[in-house]
Amino acid sequence: MLTGLHWSAITLLLTAGVLLDLLLGEVRRWHPLVGFGNLAYALERRLNQGALRFCRGVLAWLLAVVPITAAAWTLTWWLAPHSYALWACHAVLLYFSLGLRSLGEHNLPIAAALAQQDLAQARLLTARIVSRDTSNASEQDLTRASIESLLENGNDAVFGTLFWFMLAGGPGAVMYRMANTLDAMWGYRTERLRQFGCCAARMDDALNYLPARLTALSYTVLAPTLSARRRAWRCWRQQAPAWDSPNAGPVMASGAGALGIKLGGAAIYHGVLEQRPRLGDGASASGPDIFRAWRLVSHTTLLWLAMAVLINAAQIWSQHA
User: Fold this and answer.
1) In this structure, what are the phi and psi dihedrals at residue 130, rounded to the nearest 5 degrees?
2) Which of 54, 71, 151, 284 is most buried, judged by most C-beta within 10 A?
3) Tens-digit pLDDT profile for the chain (321 aa)?
4) How far apart are CA 191 and CA 196, in angstroms?
5) What whole-number distance in Å separates Cα of residue 286 and Cα of residue 114?
6) Could you list the residue ranges that cross the membrane (predicted)?
């Protein structure tokens, strides 16, 4: 591992980071990712003008990601002689990078609003987590939007972060989340961002390639029945290639297949109606399926922690065999 940490420490820190996220949630004031978002916004406003916008986007990505990643690496290097302080640093960096609890806090109220038939509140809550237009969205539209966000951001905010933490510790998790945030802010195919945000989109694709497929595999494994697992696998292999994003497709197709619901379809982005490929198989998604999607993401988190424990146990056993 690039962290230089033993698997026992990695397993302990993974668990600590997830527990901190579940217990504390997002920092309400001065959250590092919020500050980073403000930096990204300022860089885009300053550099996304004139000629050579692709090159300007590359420069902006480097200016946003490299100094902060370097600072995190320097901090862990400086703390290396002090084991407990180093471990605490890694755990806190992972905590700042995770977003498991926030996924529930943003999506479960949508399900509650739909259960109370409060469509106006559900539209307002959904608009806070997706970039599509929800002003005239139906209950089914809102349900699909919430579940797609849960499944995709389960990878982006949780499993991709855990993957890069296992490879490169706290600095790796921070680097990944910054790259993912830049893609969320700049990676749109609008006239303004098409060239400037290309670097951010491609870097996120590269960093997410393996985590997304491990997430899709996890969703498939955790489907409730053998037939559901087969359906999740089939949806992943057959439907994902039609999706624009090479990483969101596998994640959402396998998740929808595991849940036995249909996702995708028409949605309005930046004033343009897009007809997106269908994902999943089964009934149309309804409000209670949001809870089921949240449960799938939560159980996948437990699966990843359990796998870390098993890898650690196997490593210990091999050393004493």
Assistant:
1) -130, 160
2) 151
3) 556 677 788 899 999 999 999 999 887 766 787 788 889 899 989 999 888 989 999 999 999 999 999 999 999 999 988 889 999 999 999 999 999 999 999 999 999 999 999 999 999 999 999 888 888 889 999 999 999 999 999 999 999 999 999 999 999 999 999 999 999 889 888 888 889 999 999 999 999 999 999 999 999 999 999 999 999 999 999 999 998 899 999 999 999 999 999 998 887 776 777 788 999 999 899 999 999 999 999 999 999 999 999 988 887 787 776
4) 10
5) 9
6) 6-24, 54-78, 301-318
Helix-helix angle 160-186:83-97, to 10 degrees? 50
Residue whose structure tokens are 């596998």: 250
Query: Which residue blocks in 155-279 are alpha helix, DSSP H?
Result: 160-186, 198-221, 226-239, 248-259
Locus of tokens 């600590």: 16
Tokens describing residue 218 = 């996890």
Q: Supply 108's token pair.
A: 């479960």
272-280 vs 283-284, strand pairing mode: unpaired
